[in-house]
Amino acid sequence: MMKKLGTILIASAGLTFAASSMAAPGARTVPACTKVNISATIEVAAGDTWDGLKKYGKWVCLVGQGKSMNGLQAENQIPTFKLNDGSTVTNVVIGDPNFGTGSDLAAGGADGVHCYGHCKITNVYWGDVGEDGATLKAKSGIVGKLEITGGAAFKAADKLFQHNADGEVIIKDFYASGIGKLYRSCGNCKVQFPRKVTITSVTLGTVNSGVAGVNSSYDTKSGIPGKFDVATFTDLNYAGSKHVCATYIGTIHGFEPVKDTNAANIKRSCIFK
Fold first, then answer.
1. In 10 A of CB 190, how many CB atoms?
2. Spatial contact of 183 and 160, defined as CB atoms under 8 Å apart
3. In what order do the strands lie in the sheet with 179-185?
4. Cα(111)–Cα(70) distance, rounded to whole angstroms?
5. pTM for this structure?
6. Shortest CA distance to 61 belongs to which of 29, 87, 40, 30?
7. What is the CATH superfamily name and number for domain 2-272?
8. Residue 22: which pLDDT band, with cuts at 50, 70 and 90?
9. 185 and 197 Cβ atoms separated by less than 8 Å
10. How confident is the model over 157-211, as pLDDT tens digits?
11. What residue segments make up the domains of the chain, in order of their start?
12. What is the mean pLDDT of residues 258-270?
């Protein structure tokens, strides 16, 4: 049930907010695409743009081959793209959108896109999300920033966007359905950071676990006790029952994060505009 308060829509199940000042997109589908099999990661040099429409003259869906790119949840998956600092990937489909139904399919989604530094993912469609859709990775000396604009994603058994580095992930003008989580700040990375995520003008269909998972506090083992993540939501169009902002106590590798139920911690980490 959706309730209106001023210019903000609140879904009573899961605390969903949607500001009317910006328009979240409607449901999107994967563009019709020609399959192109790949067996190795495509690396985009620092400052360069890899544009699928320019390269192929049409929409293609890149389908990873072999165990390291089949798109299952094994941790040894390699990415479809490696983006170096300042690079962009645009106008392409990752994974086979026509391979079966549900999630956890061997449909060639690999581990999506890995970003090192400042990167942009623009108008990219995940026809089938592999281990993850995109991950912001740590790069020495650079505070990371990953901007995801346009496009859509489907068939994610787990999380879609993983945030392992410091810095910020920005998700805007995006659609996803049939996913576990839209975003997760790493709960137990070897090196931890307080992170930021901004989710703006996003529409979600079926979400099986939650919209965003953040560390609203960090324990003493984390190395950054007293720090916390901040998630800012503007114009989120989601009417499902799962948590919009799930909060955890971040820890370190070898331990599992637990839920953070402290009301003050949740308030400071989950910002709705």
1. 11
2. yes
3. 42-44, 81-83, 113-116, 134-137, 159-163, 179-185, 207-218, 243-250, 258-259
4. 9
5. 0.91
6. 30
7. Single-stranded right-handed beta-helix, Pectin lyase-like (2.160.20.10)
8. low
9. yes
10. 999 999 999 999 999 999 999 999 999 999 999 999 999 999 999 999 999 999 9
11. 2-272
12. 98
